[in-house]
Amino acid sequence: MGSILEVRDVSHRFGGLQVLKGVSFDVAPGSITGLIGPNGAGKSTLFNIISGFLTPSVGDIVFLGQTTTDRGIAARSRAGLQRTFQTPQVFRDLTVRENLVAGCHMRGRTGVLEAFFGLPNVRREMADARRRADEIIERFDLGPWREIPAGELPAGRQRMVELARAVMCEPKLLCLDEPSSGLSTTEVQTLMETLERLNADGMTVLLVSHDMKLMEVTSMVHALCFGEIIASGSLHAMRESPRVREAYLGT
Amino acid sequence: MTLTLLVQSVLAGLTNGFVYGLIGLGIAVVFRGARIINAMQGDLALIGSVVAYLIAVSLGLPMILGFLLGVVAGGVTGFLVDRLMIRPTAKRRGTEDSFLLVTLGGAFAVSATVLLYFGRDSYVLPGIGGNAMVDVFDAAMRVHAIWLIVISTGVVLALRWFYAKTAIGQAMLAASIDPEGALTLGINVGWMRTMTLALGGLVGGLAGVLVAPLINIQYEMGLLLTLKGFAAAILGGLTSPFGAIFGGVILGLVEALAVVTISSGYKDVVAMTLLIAIMIAMPQGLFGRRGRLGG
Amino acid sequence: MTVSPDTQRARAWTWAITAAGLVVWAALPWFLSRGTIDILVFAGLYTIAGLGVSFLLGQCGIVSLAQSGFYGIGAYAAAYGTTALGLPIPVGIIAGMVVSGAIAAAVGIPVLRLSGHFLALATLALAIIAHVLFLELEWLTGGTLGIGGIPRIALFGFTFSTPFRFYYLVWPCAFALILFYTLLLNSRTGIALRAMRDAPAAAAVAGIPITSLKVRIFVLSAAVGSLAGSLFAHYVSFISVDSFAIDRAISFLLIAVLGGVRSIPGTIAGALFVTAAPNYLSRLGDIHPILFAVALIVAVIFLPGGFGGFVSSTWRRLTAGPRPSATGGP
């Protein structure tokens, strides 16, 4: 089987600033692929291009063998691509469970009018969604906060809610943007275990971070510097690579 | 359609266009300096024209006094709007919508107050040069309309100079573009917003006294003026004084053409449709860059 | 699914209060004057129209000032359909809802891509367009002269001809719509709406079709506004363009804001205020429109949750037991 995600020769400029210069890499199915790079390397821009928040100036994003460069965010999500945000974007006024139910919105089939008149199929669907949400809540140890508005949780737990919500959709590719920022050491440990467990269940993950510790869960790492991939390989190889060391340490 | 009729309608459109432009100018000033859409802008004009009428016609005092006090009344109202409505809303972290709703409420309060004291009648203020006319290609134009165009242009130039050259103008811009940065520079951001609202009020009052000899002063006139002024302002990019006048002229001309080609009854339909179309197709106006489309 | 004792107690109380409210509601007209019942009928009509505005604002963040237009379409559809075309009453009502919904969809698809004050002003422009059209399309609306002789609604030989009788028609409609909107709010769609209000970017990632959902709710709101307008036409039996001016759009928005846009039953409180307050304030003279405008300002600044928000936060405090702390561990 080919790649889940192919980034093909993507370049992007904001006004006069060239942020990405011909970036290409693949995400293999079943892998945890990492994307590292110092601040300002273009990681977030690339991430926004992959998830559909930006259209690249040049180049293509191929997801599951289909060119998705021009497709919207929601369309990519329906195709099986989920992302999280650098600052966790939970639905603040919704309870943790409702957050998860919202997460699998696209799996539902009932419309506005059916919901308005409270038809039985709407209730059935809602009960199914709740049940699924409860399963995932258990998996992510969020049980005690099930009925609490997500906005009231501390940042670390909001991140878990966001992750759980993304998993609700059973994505084919889960893209995480700096998932460890703002987490304590133990929380990072939990996050890494969670990611490894998800991966063991068959989920492909793309991880963008500058946190080298978190990168220990990856099987493949690409290093981005000033808009270019300067090295690719295992984390160990990255640590040895003089170019990466130079980019990170400036020596 | 005869040439004279065409010229006549173009002149009417031009005059109305400057009226809308002046309202739009006030909206642009307030949006530029406070990031708020002031739905009271047309009602500030109403206040200006009512005060001018009271002084010049009811009390029989000199016209120039009525004119000046009308402008001042607009400025004072702008100041009060900030203190009584905008500031408390900002303190409670109001959303974009709450600012709009609050000023809409203010617009109704003004309109209802005018209704209470003036009733449903409409009034006309004598213009500069009385009712004298000049000939333009066989078509007639009020001398006052020419003054309106001259003064509006003067105000736009003055505002340009004010924002570009004076310290306070620069501080007002800084306070709206980057409030936190402005604070660190020692700029009193709250006070700058008050100044902005007062400046918008002055422009609104001026619009009122200039408009009153051309259209009927009537308690309901504010809201429609606001909307047309808003259309003018967004055509011009929402923050540009020159753009607002330009947008107003375009709107006025389109309306005038609608009057001669369709019917006068549908003038407002054409204007409002144009407003909606502009917002959708050109949210950043004719020259602007700011996009406002969102999910 | 387990239900905590707290939730159970809160539910029991909700039912008890609802039941008591219904008893009071049913008994009320027997003790009131015709004039007062008339006000309550209008409160019912405005509750229906206000529900649409309130739900749009509270759940989708859309400030709609266009509701007076749809209210008017409903009224004229009912009036023209029954008097000029001789259609049965339900056909006129449904035709109004369909036309309103279709117009809302046609307009909503481009306009609802706008946000914030752009959207609010676009809907205000729509209300003005509607008002001018009601005035100008005289063959349809009768212009300023209006349309008279609109038949009363009759069911099984019972004619809803007096305020007393109409009271028992309009309020059940309002209650049913409150129930429907509550169902919608707690459905998958309702959760999606609240999600996109909280975090639009994340909602898009969750696959929530934001614009299409907004258009649907806008269409629904228009149809509901049209229903209120049709009922109004059949109640007063004479309508003219004055009933569908911009101040009506403002009243509907005020109902939503005062009632609390996050609270569906709160709309009733907003509608009662908007219909009853002018009546009592008018004793103070013509100052009441000013007080009205001031009420809007004060409500937006000091009571952002409206009456409904105020009541529900108090209610939560009274019924909720201790909940696990947000920061502590399990």
UniProtKB/TrEMBL annotation, chain A:
It holds the Pfam family ABC_tran. GO terms for cellular component: plasma membrane. Keywords: ATP-binding, Nucleotide-binding, Transport. Residues 5-251 form the ABC transporter domain. This is Amino acid/amide ABC transporter ATP-binding protein 1 (HAAT family). GO terms for molecular function: ATP binding; ATP hydrolysis activity. It comes from the Bacteria. Transmembrane segments: none annotated. It comes from Enterovirga rhinocerotis.
Automatic annotation (TrEMBL), chain B:
Pfam families: BPD_transp_2. It is found in: Cell membrane. The keyword Secreted does not apply. GO terms for biological process: amino acid transport. The keyword Transport applies. InterPro entries: ABC_transp_permease (IPR001851), BCAA_transport_permease (IPR052157). Keywords: Amino-acid transport, Cell membrane, Membrane, Transmembrane, Transmembrane helix, Transport. The chain crosses the membrane at residues 6-31, 43-61, 67-86, 98-119, 139-163, 197-215, 245-263, 269-287. GO terms for molecular function: transmembrane transporter activity. One of its GO terms (cellular component) is plasma membrane. It is a multi-pass membrane protein. Belongs to the binding-protein-dependent transport system permease family. LivHM subfamily. This is Amino acid/amide ABC transporter membrane protein 1 (HAAT family).
From TrEMBL, chain C:
It is a multi-pass membrane protein. The chain crosses the membrane at residues 12-33, 39-57, 69-87, 93-111, 118-135, 166-187, 217-237, 249-277, 289-311. The keyword Transmembrane helix applies. InterPro entries: ABC_transp_permease, LivM-like. GO terms for cellular component: plasma membrane. It is found in: Cell membrane. Keywords: Cell membrane, Membrane, Transmembrane, Transmembrane helix. This is Amino acid/amide ABC transporter membrane protein 2 (HAAT family). It comes from Enterovirga rhinocerotis.
